[in-house]
């Protein structure tokens, strides 16, 4: 049996204050890892960290908008200084769009979705990689989406951003495959999290998306996604890189 190899590792989880991120932080801590929880919401991040500590684990917090370079720099510096480095990065933080179709997407929605869902994980990955390269190994796991696999699970902006995440995963996996760094993603389907539609959408997008919503199947608990994320980060997945793992109750197979 292959052990997870996560005991004593240093793990950064973005969006770690709630939903999939919080469940992942708790699961990593249960495996013996030290976690840094990065989240826009300081209160929920501190609450998650307190839960980790109450269970006997180690948790640090950085609160801020990860689409800003200075916050990304703070997260990486905190992981290095407070935990001792970065072994695992979980790029989980994200927001939903307003389900608008292409002709209805505003500049503000487009720019915010791309910035938060694609640019922010790129910035953090770019900042973390030198530390992993120095160690000669590392694991990065992204939260993609069912919308990264098809065009009928969200609005145009969210779908484009999550397809971009898959490209980022695959390119980074190839570029660093000979440096001991693995890069993968989970693609959640319906999951019980706090993520919500950002605003009142134009009618066209939701009408089309709703046509396919009956295929969603059972809504997952965040802990089910956390289990997949921890697996991909662990030594049990030591020969897996560049993969996008649907965790969607078979939605992507319909």
TrEMBL record:
Signal peptide: none annotated. The keyword Oxidoreductase applies. CDD domains: SDR_c. It holds the Pfam family adh_short. The keyword Transferase does not apply. InterPro entries: NAD(P)-bd_dom_sf, Sc_DH/Rdtase_CS, SDR, SDR_fam. GO terms for molecular function: oxidoreductase activity. GO terms for biological process: monocarboxylic acid metabolic process. This is SDR family NAD(P)-dependent oxidoreductase. Keywords: Oxidoreductase. PANTHER family: 3-OXOACYL-(ACYL-CARRIER-PROTEIN) REDUCTASE, 3-OXOACYL-[ACYL-CARRIER-PROTEIN] REDUCTASE FABG. It comes from the Bacteria. Belongs to the short-chain dehydrogenases/reductases (SDR) family.
